[in-house]
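Anyone up for a design puzzle?
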């Protein structure tokens, strides 16, 4: 489905698409918009989207598709209503018994990336999206990845 046909609304971090195409359950998508006028063009952003589509979504936010215009590119990806780990920590939402399990999930995700081999060169709380603050639900977090400038494939 073409990204321009989705109704949109804004969240605190990213625009969110509501897919109500078949009238059943609504599914929300986060949309990363990349300005095509920057030094990184639509071609690089499309490569990023295609690489993300190949990754295991247990560790990395799922990518559902991408679209572009002459001026920008948009990547539709899995929406995480809790937002980034940075937001969760700033709002003191993560219970103390969830800190070690959260760190273990982040370490497992990093080990997964290194195994395929991708180096995430921008690991920080703002690039970790929180799936759950309940330490019994895994994964508690997933990475959002920007291959353009922040990740490298190694050989």
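Challenge accepted. My sequence:
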């Amino acid at each position: 489905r073409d990204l321009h046909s989705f109704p949109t609304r804004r969240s605190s971090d990213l625009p969110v698409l509501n897919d109500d195409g078949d009238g059943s359950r609504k599914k929300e998508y986060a949309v990363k918009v990349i300005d095509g006028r920057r030094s990184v063009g639509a071609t690089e952003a499309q490569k990023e989207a295609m690489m993300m589509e190949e990754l295991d979504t247990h560790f990395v936010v799922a990518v559902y598709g991408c679209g572009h215009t002459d001026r920008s590119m948009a990547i539709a990806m899995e929406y995480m209503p809790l937002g980034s780990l940075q937001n969760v920590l700033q709002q003191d939402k993560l219970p103390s018994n969830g800190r070690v399990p959260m760190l273990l999930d982040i370490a497992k995700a990093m080990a997964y990336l290194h195994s395929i081999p991708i180096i995430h060169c921008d690991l920080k709380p703002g690039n970790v999206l929180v799936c759950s603050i309940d330490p019994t639900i895994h994964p508690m977090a997933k990475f959002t990845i920007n291959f353009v400038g922040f990740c490298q494939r190694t050989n």
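A detail worth pointing out: Strands lie at 8-10, 15-19, 27-35, 63-68, 72-78, 118-120, 128-130, 141-143, 151-153.
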